[in-house]
Write the C-alpha cells for this entry.
Amino acid sequence: MNEMKKIIVAFALLLMIIPAEEILAQKATWIWYPGDYDIWLSNKMQNRRTERGAFYPPFWRLYSHYNLVDFYKKYDLPEGDEVEIFVEGDYNVKIDGKLVSGRPGKVSIPGGKHELHLKVYNQVAVPSIFVRGKQVVSDGSWMVTYEDKEWIDDSGNASDISANPWLEADHRNFSDPRVLPSAYKLETRPEQAKSTVQKEKGWLIDFGRETFGYLSFHGLQGSGKMMVYYGESEEEALATTTCETLDEIPVNKEVAEDMTLIESRAFRFVYVVPDPSVRFGSVSMFYEFLPLEERGRFRCSDEQINKIWEVAAYTLHLNSREFFTDGIKRDRWIWSGDAYQSYLMNYYLFFDSPSVKQTLVALRGKDPVSSHINTIMDYTFYWFLGIYDYYLYSGDKAFIEKYYPRMVSLMEFCLNRRNGEGMMAGLPGDWVYIDWAPLDNKGEVSFEQLLFARSLETMTICATLMNDRPSASRYGKLADDLKAKLIPAFWSEEKHAFVHSRIDGKQSDAITRYTNMFAIFFGYLDSLKQHGIKEHVLMNDQVQKITTPYMRFYELEALCALGEQDYVRREIKDYWGGMLNLGATSFWEKYDPSEKGAEHYAMYGRPFGKSLCHAWGASPIYLLGKYFLGVKPVAPGYRQYTVEPRLGGLEWMEGSVPAPLGNVELSCNQKEIRVKSTVDGTGTLRFKSLTKPACKTAAIRKSGENEYEMTILKNTEYLVKYKNAE
Amino acid sequence: MNEMKKIIVAFALLLMIIPAEEILAQKATWIWYPGDYDIWLSNKMQNRRTERGAFYPPFWRLYSHYNLVDFYKKYDLPEGDEVEIFVEGDYNVKIDGKLVSGRPGKVSIPGGKHELHLKVYNQVAVPSIFVRGKQVVSDGSWMVTYEDKEWIDDSGNASDISANPWLEADHRNFSDPRVLPSAYKLETRPEQAKSTVQKEKGWLIDFGRETFGYLSFHGLQGSGKMMVYYGESEEEALATTTCETLDEIPVNKEVAEDMTLIESRAFRFVYVVPDPSVRFGSVSMFYEFLPLEERGRFRCSDEQINKIWEVAAYTLHLNSREFFTDGIKRDRWIWSGDAYQSYLMNYYLFFDSPSVKQTLVALRGKDPVSSHINTIMDYTFYWFLGIYDYYLYSGDKAFIEKYYPRMVSLMEFCLNRRNGEGMMAGLPGDWVYIDWAPLDNKGEVSFEQLLFARSLETMTICATLMNDRPSASRYGKLADDLKAKLIPAFWSEEKHAFVHSRIDGKQSDAITRYTNMFAIFFGYLDSLKQHGIKEHVLMNDQVQKITTPYMRFYELEALCALGEQDYVRREIKDYWGGMLNLGATSFWEKYDPSEKGAEHYAMYGRPFGKSLCHAWGASPIYLLGKYFLGVKPVAPGYRQYTVEPRLGGLEWMEGSVPAPLGNVELSCNQKEIRVKSTVDGTGTLRFKSLTKPACKTAAIRKSGENEYEMTILKNTEYLVKYKNAE
C-alpha cells in the first residue's frame, strides 16, 4: 500500500464514514466478455414488447452471450492477498493453473508473480465475475476469452481481449458484488396522478404528461380481474378495443393491500376497469428512468422555442433507457436509424458515452452477419455513421479497438452484396427504408450509395486507427471509387439535384429530398451544387414534403449547414410548436399539420398506432446545440472544436454544450458573445460582425469579409463585443 | 378423417386402450430449430464434469441455441381444426399473419388455406413448440427460421429450414406435450449393492461392476455432513485425498428418510464417510442409462472372446448417453475422435442413428468456426469421417441436406489454414494429437494429411448429393491433388512405409504406425505397399507400440483388412483378455500389460486419473462384427452390402449385424455358413472354400481361386456347405 493510500484510509477510519475495505477496493467492478452484457440485456429489453397482451418480439435475428468464458490476470504482488470472489454462473478458480477445490468464495493469493483464472459457465445470463482483494480486483485490465486453448505454447491468442468494466457507467451500479448483473434495473421514483375521474365502467387517471413506469394500486381488495387500458391520449385509454397496450390483472386479496404491476408501460392516461367485485383506493405510479444528468442547456428569447427544447429533452430522456429506444409505447426496440439520431442529440444533452456504446454493440450483435441491422440496409450504414460520430465526439479509441473486428465483418457483408456497378441495391431479405413516405426504392437508390460511401470512409478512419494499413488503403479506395460514381450516376444537371435512384442504368425521374440534404452536410458537394439543391429541392414545395421528425432532422440540418438558421427557427416553431399547440407533452413519431383531432393518433392502419413519444422527435436539441449555439468537435474528442453561434433571428440565446470532459458555456445576443469553456481542447470561436469586434482576453483574427475568429482556451472567460452580421 | 383412420379409432375406442385423440395426434412431437436442442443439451451435459468437487467445464468454445425462432406451416384443411398449443418459451401465435391475443393455449383454424406462425423467445432453453389438432400437428414438415424478414415479397428465404422432429428418436420421449424438452432425462432403474463393508472411518460399498447413476441412501438421519468418495477401483474409493470424484453431502434430518443424490457419477466402489452424528441404514443406487436395444450379437467357440464382446457392449452402452461420451468417470465430454469410434461400434451393436446425428451436430456447433473441433486438428477430420460413415451405413440423405452448410464452413476453415504446400500443419491454437504417445507432431504430419484427404472426399460425396456441382468438382480436385502428394511427400521406399512427418520439406526419420494403418483401410495403397507396411510396420516390434485401445482399434482394423483375422483374434484375447484378467468389468482408456497393480489406475500424473470405462475400449464389437462376421454396407444405407465371414481360428461363430431396417443373421463353422437377412437391400456372401460349395436356395459363383460368392436376398434362409479355406 502506498503512502497516500494509507493516509486516505487513516483519514476515512478517523471519520468513520467509509470502511477501509471499501476505499481499497474502490476499483472493483463486475466484468464480462466485451459486449455480451449489452447483447443479453438488449434481448431482455426488446422482448418486453406486447401488443394488446400478445407477446411481440423483434423480427430480426438476436444473438446470445458466450456461455463459457475464461477470465484471467497476471499479478506481481508485493504481499499476499485475500480475495473475495463473486460470480454469476457456475465456475472454478485456478491459481497458477492449479484448480482450487469447490466453488470458493475466497482465495488466498501469495505474494509474487501469479496467474489467476476464473472460468464461468452460464447459459441463462452473462458469465460475470466480481473479484475484490486489497490488490487484486476485477476491472478492465483483466483478459477474457471464450475459448482458452490450453494447448498453445504461443501466448498470442487472438480471441483474448480485455474484459469490459463498468465503472465508467456511473448510472449503472455494477460496483456492488451482492447484486448480480442480471438483476440490473433502471431507477424508479413515485409519482402522483394529476386527476382521477370516474367513467361509465371504471376510472380514468391522468398523469398530466407522457410518462413511463409501473402503475401502482393502493388499497386493492377483492377477487376477480381488473383491466388496465393505457393511452398516450385520453382517446386511446378509453378505446378499450383498440388501445395499443393493456394489462389484465388477476386480483385475489381478502384484505386491502398495495400492488405495483410487474410490467412498465408508457402512458399519460390510464383507464382502469375492475370487475364489480374488485375495489381500490387510489392509483399512482413508479416513474422508471435512466438517471442521466442533463449537461446540455438552451435558453433563448423565444419562450416557445424554450418549451420545445424542454419537451425535446424530456422526450429524449424517456427514450434513453437500457439502450436508446425508438419510442416508449410500442416497440421499445433498438432501431439503428432511430438510435443514430439519439446519439447525436445525446452529444448535446447528456454526453453519455456508455449509452452510445451499448446501443452500438447491441445493434451489431455478433458474427456471422446474415442480414442488415434491423433488416434495413440504411440502418446498417447508420451503424457505421454512429461509429464515425462517436469517435469524433468522444475520441474513444479503445472502443474502436475492441469492436473493429465486428466492423470489418459487417462491412464484408455489405461488400459481398454489391452489384456489378459496385453499388448496393436491395436484395431479397433487405428492407430499403429511408423514411415513412411513398417511395420507390427499387434498383440503385442514390441515398443508400451516399450512406455506403460514408460507411466506407468510417472504415478507412478506423482501419487507420488500428494501424491496419492494407485495409485502410482498400477502404479508402473503395470509398473514393464509390464517391466518384455518385455524380455521374445520380446527378441531374437539369434538375440541379440528385435523382432518387437508377434502375437498369437509367436515372429515375423522381427527385426526393433525402440524398440531396445528406450530400450537403456530408460535404460531398461544391457550393454551386449545394445552392442548386437548396433552391430546387430543399426550398421547393413541389418536391415531396417530409412528414416525419426523423427526416425533418436532416432536412433542417442541411439548411442549417447552408446558414439558413432563421428559416430553420421558423420551421421549428411551426412544426414542433404545432405539436405543442395540439397538447403534446412529448414529441411524436410523425406529425402532419393537415390532420385533425384523433387522426393524429393513427398510424400503420391502427387508430392509436402512432407513438406520441418518439426519440426522433427530439431533434431541436441537436439543431439548437450544434447550429445555433454552434458548438462541434473538429478533431476527435473535442481536442479541437469550433463555436459558431448563429442567432437565426433570436434576440438572445444562452446555453451549454457538453464535451467528454467539461462544457462549452455560451451566451450571445446581437452585441455580445460570452464564452467559457472547461473542455480539454482548443476551441475556435467564429462569428460575423459588421463592426470590428473586441475582446479583452483574446486576439481576434479576421478570416473573411465581416468574418472573424479567435482561439478559446480552457477555463478562460471571453466577452466579445461585436455587431451581429448573420 | 379417412376411412382407415376411422376404423383404427373405432377399434381403439372399443378396446378402451388409447383415447381417440392420442391416435389422431400420434404424429405430434416437440420441434425446434435443427440442431439447437443438441447444442443446448450437450452444453448441459458437458458442464456436469467435476474434479474433486470443483466445476470443470470443457476448454473449447461452446455455442448457443437461437433464442428467437419463428415456426410456420401452410395448411389446406378440409375442415376447421381446434389446435392445442404448448410452448417452451414466451411466444405469440399468428393465423394468416394476424396476431392472436395473449398467449393462447388453444386456437381455432378454419378450413381452407391458412398459414400458422408461432414465434418463440427463450434465452434459457431451446424455443420449442408442440402443436396438436386433429389435422394440424407439429412435426418435421414445419418450417423454421431464426430471422423472419417480414419485409420480403420474395418467399425464398435462405434461412428457412424444416424443423427437427423427434419422433424418430424412440428412446427420447418428446411426444408428451406436458413434458418440456428441457426436462429430458435419461432413464433410471434401482440397483442393489453387492457388498457393504465397514472400514475405519466409514463404509465401502461395492456394486459388483462398473456402473453409473445416482447413489441412494435409505434411513438417513442426523445432522452434519457425509463425504462420498467414488472409485472405479477399490483403491480409488478408499483414496480420500486423490480419488477423482467426490461429493460432500449436507444432512439435516430429524427423522430417518431416504435420499437420492442429485448428481450422477461413475463408480464400482463407493466409500461413504459420514460425520459421527449422521447415520444411514443402507445404500443402493439408481442406474442411469439410455434405453438402447442391443440389436447386434456375437457368440463363438471361445468363451473369453464372448466375455470380451459382452464387456465391450456394456462399456459402449455406459458411454452412450445423451451423446457419445469419451468415458463416464472423468470428462463425460464429447470428443470427436472418441465419438467417431462409438459411431462405428454403434453400427454393430445398436444402430442408433439419432445418437450418431446428435453427437455430430453437438460437436459441430455453429458458425463462425474459430478453432478445430475440441481444438484438435485430427478431431475436425474425424468429424468429416463420421459423416462419411454415417451416410454409408444409414443412407440418410436428409441429414446431409440439413447440415451441408455447416460442413462447408468447417471445411473452409480448414482450407484457409493450409500452408503453401496445400497441407495442414499445426498453427497456434491447434492441438495435433493423434494418440497418447510420445510423438513429435511439428510440421506437416502425414497422418493429418491423410485424414484431410478423406475429409475432402467426404465433401465431394456430400456436394454431389446436394447437387452442388461446382463444389463437388472443387473438393474432388482438392482431394485428388492432396492424395497425389502423399506418396512423394511421405513415402519412404527404403522403409516401406510412410514417415511420420515432413519438416521444412524434409522427411523425418520417425516411422509410426498411424498413417500406415489408416492408409490400408482407406484403400489408398496398392497391394505391394500394403504388404510392405504389414511386414515393416504393423508386425514389426521395433516400431513404437500402441498402448491405447483407441489406436489399437485402427491397428487391428488394418490387420483385419489385410486378412490377418487369426492374428487379430490372438491380439484381442491378449489385450482385452489382459484387462479382464486384471478384473476389469468395463474396458479402459489405456492398458499397458507391463504395468503392475495400482499403476494401472494412474494417468495424467494423477494416481486415479485413468478412466476404467472408456468408449474407445469397446472396439472388439466393431472388429468382430465387421471383420469376423464380415458384414458391411457397400452402397449407402445397406442397399448393397457384403458378408465375408472369417473365423480367424475360431471353431464357430454366430451373430447378428443390424442395418437401418433389418438384420443380417449369420452362423458359421468350418463346414457350414448359414445366413438370413431381413435387410432391405442386396447382399453378397463371399467366402473361401477348398471344395466346391453348395447351397440349395442360391446360385454360387466362382470369383477366384478357392473364392466364391452368392447373392443374398431379403428374408431368405441360406445354408452353404463348404470347406473353409481362409
Summary: The first helix of chain A runs from residue 3 to 15. The radius of gyration of chain A is 28 Å. Chain A touches chain B through 54 residues (CB under 8 Å). Residues 297-626 of chain A form a domain with the Glycosyltransferase fold (CATH 1.50.10.10).
